[in-house]
Amino acid sequence: MTTKHEQILQYIQNLPIGDKISVRQIAKELGVSEGTAYRAIKDAENKGFVSTIERVGTIRIEQKRKENIERLTFAEIVNIVDGQVLGGKSGLHKTLNKFVIGAMEVEAMMRYTEAGNLLIVGNRMKAQKSALQRGAAVLITGGFDTGDDVKKLADELELPIISTSYDTFTVATLINRAIFDQLIKKEILLVEDILIPIEQTYYLKVNEPIQKWYELNEKYRHTRFPVVTDDLKVEGMVTSKDVISEDRARPLEKVMTKQPITVTLKTSVASASHIMIWEGIELLPVVDDQNRLLGIISRQDVLKSLQTIQRQPHVGETIENLIFNHLHKKETTDGVDVSYEFDVTPQMTNQHGTISYGVLTSTIIESVHRLFRAQKKGEIVVESMSVYYLKPVQIDYDITIRPNILEIGRKFGKVDVEVVSKGMIAAKALIMVQFLDR
């Protein structure tokens, strides 16, 4: 049986793209309280199929897929530039494929403007009207208004015309930053990308006997299964350790591990990997916000996916990418000690012009990663890190990181790391790591 919250979400998803919705309308339409309606609308906004705009309201937009996440809707543009919608509100759900800065004659401007574009222009009504006629939306900078005929045309064509108080340079910077952030998000691997869906998942019911575990084990050769209620809510996990020496007629709910660790579709694969390694879990149930089973992820699939995407080029460059690209192995004369060189660029400094603590620790960890890869130990998870000596390293200085293995076993390793700059020790750290099973 679906909850009121789920019914509201389903209702919103079934609305046509571009429809405007409100808390009061939803509450009246579905006979729920305004509080319930408000929470569901906020959830829908988090899931990406509605967008709320100040002075306009909440509209149904197309839910983005991973492959086109970098494409912004005009509704998102309004929020990014603190804009006011002057006309064409019914087209706010549409996405833009390019923005054009109108800093030339109208005729020249139109050669670069086409359907699906956003023309960024000042108080030039002829250019605004021409852009709308070519199928492009318009963003007016400087806080200017526009003529009633332009607003009417925008409404007829369902193309937004937006006004912002920012100047053209600031607007272009804000939009570029938003697109850049979206590109970075696109590269982050989530559980939903590697999910084994429920249709291909084997699970057991709480009221079934242990005998059912043996039947699934015999048929599919798996030893771990989620245990769910009739409405698929995850209640536990059962493994071979739980059922061994137990009466096969006994209900699974009596032997299962209750309240198992679960993840959601939006959990990053890196986080899921950490949970699995730390807790010694081979399989994790994936649930929705009502704790209902959506599928599973296995430790093997998680590690395989991490190896596949490891060090793939990102369209949007993060600080981690900058660190990776600036860290180079230093050739040593004795051929025994391993060290890495790193140059401190302006992006990596704090407000005082010295290397930020976060960048320094990330550099140390990356050096340890590379050290163990060179030792054929594969991937690691950092268990603990203690920086017990630290001095400022200023901008444009080079540093040398010298990781030294103190202890190494089958599962764990201990490393002492020394950071040197200008011939002086700048930092010392002690790191404990755990090796990921291959």
Automatic annotation (TrEMBL):
Recorded hits in Pfam families, A to Z, give:
4HBT, CBS, DRTGG, HTH_24
Note whether ATP-binding occurs among the keywords: no
InterPro entries this protein is in?
Answer: CBS_dom, CBS_dom_sf, Diverse_CBS-Domain, DRTGG, HotDog_dom_sf, Ser_kin/Pase_Hpr-like_N_sf, Thioestr_dom, WH-like_DNA-bd_sf
CDD domains linked to this entry: CBS_pair_DRTGG_assoc, hot_dog
Occurrences of domain CBS (ranges): 195-254, 256-318
Keywords for this protein: CBS domain
Protein name stated in the entry: CBS domain-containing protein
Q: Write down the species.
A: Caldibacillus thermoamylovorans
